[in-house]
């Protein structure tokens, strides 16, 4: 997968060299290009923003630097359709970033991120590129960050771990919280490892029983309990048919 990020803070994206994403890059599974938006400014002050039409507080990012930067990013390798790029615009006004959207993005060969500062990017930039590629305006949560760069790191990490061969054990994202399947809409329950006793605390007996059916049932019960406590909205959103008799006895 190819990733382009256009930003006025390229150094903010340095974590893309670390850990899972960094290793995927080193192995050639991710081809990452971080570009400094100010390279596409032509005035003495490298201006990327201006006052909003219609008045109001804050500044708006200008069309021309974004347009020129995106055209250059596209110039090497642009193809339309399913093999072409998608634009990902982090914004608190976007659609919520979910595991489902992470899966959708992970199936695209090329993502171009446009993290903005200030009050956001002039609308015409998104409208212009939407004629050539899918544009995803995405929010990572109901809070306002100072800019979209941290959101790019979040989205990239969630997407990269879904790419074939990136995670050591492919099964390890099958029972993630929010993963499709039997545990859809349930949060993952608690996990334990050795030693079996620590500071007088034991691990649940069932995990030592070797009884796979009982362990699966226990995991589901714990997931249900945690979801009821932390995310009752997820239970309410779930089709009642997804719960079996034992779920209801909990
Ligand atoms: N930029 C500022 N706040 C954001 C958010 N919550 N999600 C994505 N991008 C943002």
Descriptive report:
The chain has 250 residues and is an alpha/beta fold. The chain has two domains: 159 residues, 3-Layer(aba) Sandwich (Alpha/beta knot), CATH 3.40.1280.10; 76 residues, tRNA(m1g37)methyltransferase, domain 2 (Trp Operon Repressor, Chain A, Orthogonal Bundle), CATH 1.10.1270.20. The protein has eight helices and nine strands. The strands form three sheets. Strands 2-1-6-5-7 form a five-stranded parallel sheet. The structure holds adenine. It catalyses: guanosine(37) in tRNA + S-adenosyl-L-methionine = N(1)-methylguanosine(37) in tRNA + S-adenosyl-L-homocysteine + H(+).
Task: Tell me about the largest β-sheet.
Answer: 5 strands, parallel
Which strand-content bin applies to the residues? 15-25%
What ranges have pLDDT less than 50 throughout 5 or more consecutive residues?
none
What is the alpha-carbon Rg in Å? 22 Å
Structural class determined from secondary elements = alpha/beta
Shape: elongated
| Domain module count | 2
Helicity, as a percent range: 25-40%
Please write the CATH class name of the largest domain.
Answer: Alpha Beta
Strand tally is 9
By oligomeric state, this entry counts as single chain
């Amino acid at each position: 997968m190819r990733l382009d990020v256009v930003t006025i803070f390229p150094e903010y994206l340095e974590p893309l060299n670390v850990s899972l994403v960094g290793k995927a890059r080193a192995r050639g599974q991710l081809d990452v290009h971080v570009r400094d938006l100010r390279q596409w400014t032509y005035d003495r002050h490298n201006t990327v923003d201006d006052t909003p039409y219609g008045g109001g507080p804050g500044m708006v990012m200008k069309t021309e630097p974004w347009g020129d930067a995106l055209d250059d990013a596209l110039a090497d390798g642009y193809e339309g359709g399913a093999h072409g790029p998608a634009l990902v615009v982090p914004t608190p006004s976007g659609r919520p970033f979910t595991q489902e959207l992470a899966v959708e993005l992970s199936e695209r060969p090329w993502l171009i991120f446009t993290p903005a500062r200030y009050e956001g990017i002039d609308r015409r930039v998104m409208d212009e590129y939407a004629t050539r590629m899918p544009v995803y305006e995405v929010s990572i949560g109901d809070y306002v960050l100072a800019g979209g760069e941290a959101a790019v790191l979040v989205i990239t990490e969630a997407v990269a771990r879904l790419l074939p061969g990136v995670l050591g054990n492919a099964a390890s994202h099958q029972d993630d919280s929010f993963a499709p399947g039997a545990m859809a809409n349930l949060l993952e329950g608690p996990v334990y490892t050795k030693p079996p006793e620590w500071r007088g605390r034991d691990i649940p007996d069932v995990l030592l029983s070797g009884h796979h059916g009982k362990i699966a049932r226990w995991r589901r019960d714990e997931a249900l309990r945690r979801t009821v406590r932390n995310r009752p909205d997820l239970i309410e959103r779930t089709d009642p048919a997804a719960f079996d008799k034992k779920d209801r006895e909990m």
